[in-house]
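Obj.: predict assembly geometry.
Materials: sequence records (below).
Method: joint structure prediction, all chains together.
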Amino acid sequence: MTDFGVEEVTVEIDGTTVLDDLSLTIPRGAVTAVVGGDGAGKSTLLRCLVGLRAPSRGVVHRPSKTQVSYMPSTSGTWRELSVAENMAFVGRAYAIEPPVCASRTEGLLQQAGLAGAADRLAGDLSGGMRQKLGFCMALLHDPLLLVLDEPSTGVDAVSRVELWRLIAQAAARGSAVVMATTYLDEAERASSVLVLDRGRSLLAGEPAAVLASMNGAVVEVGQPSAMTWRRGGSFHEWIADGAPAGSQRAVTPDLEDLVIAEMLRVRSGEMVTP
Amino acid sequence: MTSRATRVFGSFTAVDDVSIEVGPGEIVGLLGANGAGKTTLIRLMLGLLPISSGSVSIFGEPPSRRTRARLGYVPQGLGLYMDMTVTENLRFYAGAFGVQPSLDELPDALAEVRDSLVDQIGLGRQRQLAFACALNHHASLVVLDEPTSGVDPLARSALWDQVHNQTDSGVGVIVTTHYLEEAHQCDRLVIMAAGKVVASGTLAEITDGARTVRVRCESWASAFNALTDAAMPVTLSGRQVRVPGASREQVLARLRDAGVDAEVDEMPATLEETMTMIHP
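Observations (raw structure tokens):
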């Protein structure tokens, strides 16, 4: 079983470095999450993976074109077509035998809770339903590599749980799944995570291992400063030498604390992880 | 804030007899699926939509230009003018409310780009600007619709800092979010489904008593597949499989039938898991 991914990939667009010497392994049978905000380079990385953009330098490992699937952040559905027509259209594009296509469509729509909506126009679906349809379309030809760009953005919490279940199921059946997200609580559910910041890898690995590698301590403080960040009613601060001073209370950091501490470190030049 | 408000579109009742109270300095999180009625409720409060029956009262009176002047609103789409500069947007919004723009109180990140076109600043800064535009007229109540969608954790923390600064000075805040991690930032939560309030209270009150079954084993995929095939509401968290609302015995029996050896225990459900149990 070969893994997919990118090796030392750099992408320059109009003289700007959008991805900077990035490597990522996307194993089969697992979900890999790529996290970052607006402009971090998530979409560019995914577009490189599926061949929609050629890297300026570096190597991309992916299966043949017919075994890759890409769901853009806009879901990739045709709004003027019905749910069933969207599925049939993708089936024809991949030259899937009509009876096979029909039975796979039925199974996928059933699992996604869309069986009752087969005749509705994609444009009339709620955001969550449309993303689920986009996901079913991406899965129709049973791809080896499934690339999902922010599948859950704008999707409500309940639909997101359902969508995540479908994504996990694709991985459980052996696909290599990579998904972009802006949310760390979602990334924490993946087998491994790559945190992107301004085109560079900020942190990478299994969420628990990444968290365990954190140096120093995170403490709760009452007053903000340049190196603190807001968590609920108080502020958190990262202490490099790990010793809370005076009345400071140490907290158990989560991935969000680590990523913010690391972003602040990158912007100021101290070490959070070795 | 709103009392016994009902809004009907044709035969569809989008908001059905909903009341929400927000105290000074309080953050209330408004949660619910797409189509639950959150946006309609906000539009009723803003006076953008008339009610079908009942009454809407905000600050103790029906929505009007006068109540609107005490409200700050950041829509999901931000409502900024992309081809105007940061300063021009602030001046425009201040002008609409008949106040002076407070240009010297801008967060540093915005002050740095005050003469740039909004189109040319990042999404995090655009969101900060939309906040500044909505807060400039010293509202008593601020309504934020998905305020942090799409931004990185550092920018999100800066946005929440702006929100908490408002509540520290006594402003009440209603915030909608799909990201339940952010529910931790709220003092109280109101959960809507099909136009009605189905749960409300603190995070601890809402999740109280809800349980989930956690499955840990060598191969998460085999446990996941076995439980999915039994039509259980399975979720994945890292390499753990979780089944909200199920009983430990049920899950154990199913795994035994499928020949999957796993460690199974029951634990309190997360808010997200509780939400899947509230919604049929």
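Conclusions so far: The first helix of chain B runs from residue 38 to 46.
To do: check interface contacts against the pulldown list.
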